[in-house]
Write a structure and sequence with these properties.
Layout (H helix, E strand, L loop, with lengths): L6 E6 L4 H5 L2 H8 L5 E7 L1 H9 L5 E4 L16 H9 L2 E4 L8 H8 L3 E3 L14 H7 L22 H13 L8 E5 L11 H14 L3 E6 L4 H14 L6 E4 L3 H10 L2 E5 L2 H8 L3 E6 L1 H7 L6 E5 L5 H13 L5
Parallel strand pairs: 1-2, 1-4, 2-3, 4-5, 6-7, 6-9, 7-8, 9-10, 10-11
């Protein structure tokens, strides 16, 4: 089927980086729908653009520019939105499921519309990971419970993203240097952060057995967390010659992660991006979020933040990956 003849599927997901990355297997399922579909993603612009560049969707749309607010009240719908909904082969909205009259008004205008929660209902007995919940929400469209390996394959990292990442590494004197370990100490909430003492301990143990170049990623709200990690590393005599990379754009960050040998982080969007691009990653979750938010990528290992042996287990994994051996 040619690109112009493929069915059009509109996906609406205004969530943060980690939330949207959890949808990648479901987005790939939609692309295979009914013999092949062209998937348009309405999200935060930088996130939609990231997934277009990585080949997970075909078109990036601005969530805010769609005009969906009209569907939350008895208000006229803009002609552009009405036409897009009417022409869509299917619409999947992981947004607005609990806010009438949005679900009813959307279904009235879209021929095949699914409105579902972006995360599953809490089930403490048998929690369902977010990525599996999103896939399961597509059952009305004929998506089965089977998950082909290609739906969980790493995101493609374009050559120009990698080139920009290597140029960034060159400015730090790291291009072609020792294996790179990327660490991200931040998280969306302070309660999600792994205690800095344990984080630094894992890094110190890992690099003691496998010398590496340590690259600390700092997002816009991570300054305090990174500073605390650096202070702890200094107290351990670890992480000498480390480098901070501050708020790179998403394509460069994806490239840096793809160029790294290993990654260590907590429950954050950056950790989900590391897993999604296929870097071997240890992600440390609070027990409250571990099963729900575990990544779909086979290259990531999730650990519980409160496990007494977590620093040692993280270090063992990282050391093996940095040394180029089996994990």
């Amino acid at each position: 089927m040619t690109a112009s003849a493929r069915h059009g599927v509109l996906v609406i997901h205004p969530g943060a980086l980690g939330d949207v990355l959890q949808a990648v297997p479901a987005l790939r399922a939609l692309a295979a729908l009914d013999g092949g579909a062209r998937v348009s993603l309405a999200a935060q612009p930088r996130l939609a653009a990231l997934l277009v560049g990585a080949g997970a969707v075909d078109e990036a749309l601005s969530f805010d520019a769609l005009g969906l607010e009209a569907l939350f009240a008895d208000a006229p719908v803009a002609p552009a939105l009405a036409d897009r909904l009417a022409r869509a082969h299917a619409v999947v909205s992981w947004f607005g499921a609990r806010q009438p009259p949005y679900p009813e008004r959307l279904r009235a205008r879209a021929p095949r519309a699914i409105v579902a929660l972006p995360v599953p209902e809490v089930n403490r007995v048998s929690p369902v990971p977010v990525w599996r919940h999103l896939l399961a929400s597509l059952a009305p469209l004929g998506v089965s419970g089977a998950v082909p390996a290609e739906w969980r394959a790493p995101l493609a990292v374009p050559a120009d993203w990698r080139a920009r990442a290597r140029a960034t590494l060159s400015t730090f004197g790291l291009a072609g240097a020792r294996p790179i370990l990327v660490a991200h100490a931040g998280a969306g909430g302070e309660w999600k952060r792994w205690p800095v003492e344990r984080f630094a301990d894992a890094i110190a143990r890992a690099e003691a057995g496998a010398p590496c170049a340590l690259l600390l990623h700092e997002g816009p709200a991570d300054g305090a967390a990174v500073a605390a990690l650096e202070a702890r590393l200094d107290s351990l005599g670890a992480g000498r010659g480390r480098t901070r990379v501050v708020a790179p754009d998403l394509p460069v960050l994806a490239g840096l992660l793809a160029e790294a040998r290993a990654f260590l982080g907590g429950d954050s969007g950056v950790s989900h991006l590391a897993a999604a691009v296929g870097v071997t990653a240890v992600i440390v979750f609070p027990e409250a979020t571990r099963q729900l938010w575990q990544p779909w990528s086979a290259s990531a290992v999730s650990l519980g933040a409160d496990e007494p042996t977590a620093p040692n287990r993280a270090a063992e994994r990282l050391r093996a990956w940095l040394a180029g051996g089996p994990a």
